[in-house]
């Protein structure tokens, strides 16, 4: 079983400055709920009971959010509004949270490697909170856990992306082995249109086997000095150990202002309020 889910949450969120100067981007609200809470709920839906969060300086608000606030609860109880915290209380009671700091911002691969001490030697999920995925039937990570149970290797979530946007993503070269399921042969990080092997792009959902840590330790940084998870996954893919899955659901790129606004608008309109 996949019991742990890793949340890389140490980035600066520069595209949302000045809002993220003092507030972690993972705490930006989509309607009344912060992005990272949506991610934790998705992990719980996949039956993960330990949330391992890689944080950085200025991220204390994340820890405070997933903790009990006695003073606030007392005030809400006095005003008969304690129901407003029911959802977050349920989360706190349902799982445990562990934290570690990423002292240097050296890419997603480095963030995942930093989380090794929290995850240990077992397969684990990874959720990037600014990729908000909505599926009312079954969360994306839960769908991927079912695939892991079958294939017992790393699983990555993918979606079709327009050609002009491929340079923002890791793009796979793969063969379809079942409807919406692909065996990955190679991956290219942020290719130009001419060199992209497909229009299938990796989004912020992964299930990784623990050998990924050993691979990351020997992965060379790119030109920006960052360790890319794509490079480590390529090593696994050459052995046939990466499956890509075209997930069911809607994904909002809440790392961009346009995607964040669309998520707020769509979820508000669909809430019936």
Attribute tags:
273 residues; nine-stranded mixed β-sheet; two-stranded antiparallel sheet; alpha/beta; Spore Coat Polysaccharide Biosynthesis Protein SpsA, Chain A; 13 strands
Largest sheet: 9 strands, mixed
Along the chain, the helix and strand elements come as: EEEHEHHHEHHEEHEEEEHHEEH
How far apart the termini lie comes to: 38 Å
Q: Kindly report the oligomeric state of this protein.
A: single chain
Task: State Rg.
Answer: 18 Å
Strand line-up in the sheet with most strands = 5-4-1-6-11-8-12-10-9
> What's the CATH topology label?
Spore Coat Polysaccharide Biosynthesis Protein SpsA, Chain A
- Which CATH-level-2 architecture? Alpha-Beta Complex
Any idea what the shape is?
A: globular
Mean pLDDT: 91
Describe what this molecule looks like in 3D.
The protein is α/β, with parallel strands linked by helices. It has one domain (4-270): Spore Coat Polysaccharide Biosynthesis Protein SpsA, Chain A, CATH 3.90.550.10. The chain has ten helices and 13 strands. The strands form three sheets. A nine-stranded mixed β-sheet has the order 5-4-1-6-11-8-12-10-9, with helices on both faces. Strands 2-3 form a two-stranded antiparallel ribbon. A two-stranded antiparallel sheet has the order 7-13. Strand 9 and strand 10 (181-189) form a beta hairpin. The radius of gyration is 18 Å and the shape is globular. 39% of the residues are buried. The model has no long low-confidence stretch (mean pLDDT 91).
